[in-house]
Amino acid sequence: MSKTRLIVTTTNAEPPLKGDLFAGTKFWVAQRCPSRQDYIKKITYNGGTIVPLEKQADILIVDYLRKDLPVNGVSYRLIDDSLKDAEFKDVDDYICGPRHHVRDVGSMKPARAGRTPFTTEDDLQLYKWVKDAENQGARIKGNELYKQLEQKNPRHSFQSWRDRYLKVLSIKPPSSALVDANPPLSPPTSDPQAAPQNFPRPRNKRPRSTGSVNEKPSLSQ
Hints:
TE2IP/Rap1, Rossmann fold, Homeodomain-like_sf, 28% helix, nucleus, globular, disordered C terminus, 4 strands, four-stranded parallel beta sheet, mainly alpha
């Protein structure tokens, strides 16, 4: 039976027990964010941490209606929607500030706005990253594992990496990963199909020579 997640939505008073929806995630909340103190409480009451500097944060919460937004600024709607659905939403869906993109090497095309799609290479990298960590005993549902991956490949936010694995790849691994992880077994040696296809030709039994020891074999057939 799945464990019911504790979600704290009221900000009137500090709750006796805090939720863990935002646990392990550091937030910076802009000074001009509407109802800033309420959002700070919503974050901390649900396990998140508030930091004073942008560079210390995993997520920058901002007012999406403003023009002077920081790079990768995230709308405060992320907090509201996550609490409403009791699910930490994908950060990429709420980015409203200028995006930090990684372009393909040699590409002259400008980065496109909007959500960055996952490629086959992304899926393979993510799947291998998580499986390697899991084999070493790491927690795969936390944030730290995906934050480290984001440092290596900032094409997606750590939250997007995490959502992609938990909601997609953990259920349906990439096909190439399955092939690599489960190579076909070698057929048993008793199986006639396993025998070589090019059989050696049988040797003609050489008749016993009755001549001298210096006699050479005949080359005629």
